[in-house]
Specification:
Pfam families: DUF2243. By secondary structure, the chain is mostly helical. It has helices at 5-43, 55-83, 92-118, 131-154.
């Protein structure tokens, strides 16, 4: 079925835009997850995903966490690859950067609210007298990333959120 050149281009640009939004969001989410795992779990050794278990349980829970963020990064990379070059659409780089930061911020907020506050399976720095300060700072960093991402994205002309 021939949709005509104008219609075909509009669908292609809209699809590219959606793929860039989804892919960059996944890349941001996965990147902040990977940084959380590397910095807080491995380098600083402040916490594991599940603290109230044996050392082996902590290693397994961290391994599953790293597997999940790796899958998220791979999925984001594939979706971005399918979307093509961001420069092929108007303000594509702003769209990519904005949703990357929004995705990273969402990771911090979701992980912080669920794991630190609702489920209480770990804190950013458990056992520290200022543990709540670390948890709040973690959430604040996430909110800051979301706001910066939104500011970058808002001038892209995108009227929808995927």
């Amino acid at each position: 079925m021939n949709l005509g050149k104008g219609r075909e281009s509009a669908v292609t640009i809209d699809t590219k835009r959606k793929l860039i939004i989804i892919g960059s969001f996944l890349m941001g989410f996965g990147t902040l997850g990977a940084l959380d795992g590397v910095i807080f779990h491995q380098l600083l050794q402040w916490h594991s995903v599940v603290m109230e278990t044996s050392r082996q349980g902590q290693i397994i829970s961290d391994g599953l966490f790293h597997l999940a963020v790796t899958i998220t990064l791979i999925a984001g990379g594939i979706v971005l690859w399918l979307g093509g070059k961001p420069t092929d659409i108007s303000k594509g780089i702003r769209l990519l950067a904005g949703f990357f930061l929004i995705g990273g911020g969402i990771f911090n907020v979701v992980e912080g609210l669920i794991n630190h506050h609702l489920l209480q399976i770990h804190r950013v720095k458990p056992g520290d007298p200022n543990a709540l300060m670390y948890d709040v700072a973690f959430l604040a960093c996430g909110i800051f990333l979301i706001l910066i991402g939104y500011i970058i994205r808002r001038n892209t002309g995108v009227k929808y959120e995927v």
